[in-house]
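Ticket #4471: structure output looks truncated?

Reporter: J.K.
Steps to reproduce: submitted the chain below (563 residues) through the standard prediction queue, then opened the result file.
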Amino acid sequence: MKNQLMPLLGLFVTSAIIGIGESRVHPSQHRGKDGVAQLVNDKAVWDAPAIQARADSNPVSNRFLSDKTEKFAVNGTGIPLVDFDVGESYAGLLPISDNENERDNLFFWFFPASDEKNRKRREITIFLNGGPGCSSLYGLFQENGPFIWRPGTQKPVRNPWSWHHLTDVVWIDQPVTVGFSTGNVTIHNEDELAQQFMGFWKNFVDKFRMQGYKVYIAGESYGGYYGSYISNHFIDANDTEYYNLRGLMLLNGQISNIDIHQQVVAEAFVQQNYNLMSFGDRMMDTIRNVSDRCGYREYLNKYYTYPPAGPQPALGPWAEKSNGAVGYKEGCELWMSIYRESILENPCFNIYNIQDHCPSLPNPIDETNYFQREDVKNAIHVPLEAKWNLCIDTAFVTEDGSNPPSHRELPKVIDKTQNVMLVQGASDFVIPANGILLAVQNMTWGGKMGFQSKPVSPFYVPRWGWGHHRGEYYGGDLAERSGVLGTTHHERGLTVVVLTSAGHGAAYQAGTATFRNLEKLLGRIDSLSEPGPFTLPQLRDIPQLEKPLGKGTYPIPWVVAGH
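Returned output as attached by the reporter:
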């Protein structure tokens, strides 16, 4: 029943592009002329963040520029509508094999690390949006790239929480035909997708002379499948010259089936978020009755425990087989019933972030057809005849026939790398955090099943410099939260983080939090619960909270109370 979830995962990116989701940007970008003038006067006492003040007269050297890469070089001052220098980057198409007649290509946009110390590290992070079939240019432009153009804003701004401040990062449109990638759809499953990606990656490494580089992979949403399977194939290659995998991070990533991710935890999600999903008594009685009759509550209370109660059955009491196919028993599609009722009661209800509200802000990428512009295509070396789509539903020949990665691929990646992170937004109703945590309790790695101890540790996001004195202000264009923003836990090479400040798009809604998670993935910090500063040079002296921080702010486990 996994396939019922796939359209929703692709729809998240589409929804974000058309304006569903909050926009957390500097207030001057949403004010009228008088309000802006007042803010300009107020802001005069603040300095711009150091990371945003690179002088054009002293540019960072183009360390990856060579005869092989010259045709991919992007003019940092020539990106349409971006009125600042984004620095060194490279974009274009590379084939998925070394066959001289290869017609299938993947599109990439590569940004070397901006920080001087981080530029010396031989490492790169791959970022993949999900879908299946959604372009990673969404992630670059509206989540974690060097410049961000959020809904309701007039132009792109620098992103102080861009991942390229920590490491080399490449955003890749894949599989073939997704985004600006070109060719023919030929794949049927994730193994074939990973083989396609491996061929591209070898060409990328050769082109940019990255042999032996440490590789980290980050996948969002359906990228839980992408990242797990690609990582597994990197490991199987046993070739550290090209596929030197050192870690994997999944952001709101799908790792199990729809029953575990949605149906089993639906009643608990409503109860846990009753202030935002406050149904009347009649609907609440219906939810409780369906959960009881179909066995969801009993299943959750039995298996969502620490340590785990044992293997979870492959077929739950809510399912039945008919003519060889597995489906829901009549009246047992609880998650969909809740979704439909939520929309009826609140037309602004957003399943990707239940904290969201109307009005939706217009998204400039959609409103301006930005990626269809000839000057944009020229800037990033895309053929003018190429047609960019945010998401397509034809990434596979039919449907993805792969098993959930929690069965085999993800445990293997944990065991081999000892560095896997599952980062989940608490306000995500498409893949609720409890559904991820329930799936983890049915997963075996490191010789044991699930987490043995209940997650209670605080997830700490460092103070980043907000203040009312000269020199203390950082990241004003994309102000973000700090402090204890969730719950985290680590055992046997697996780290789980639940963010209270985010929904399905963790990198979109919690830039500082995901920046901190990347620091952990890359080995810059040892713990997500220690109140230490960010590792960027200009943030290392910012005073932090003192210990003890207390417990995490997302309760785990959350089972249905009173029944």
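Triage note (M.O.): checked the attachment and the full token line is present. The chain has one domain: 2-257+399-539.
Status: closed, working as intended.
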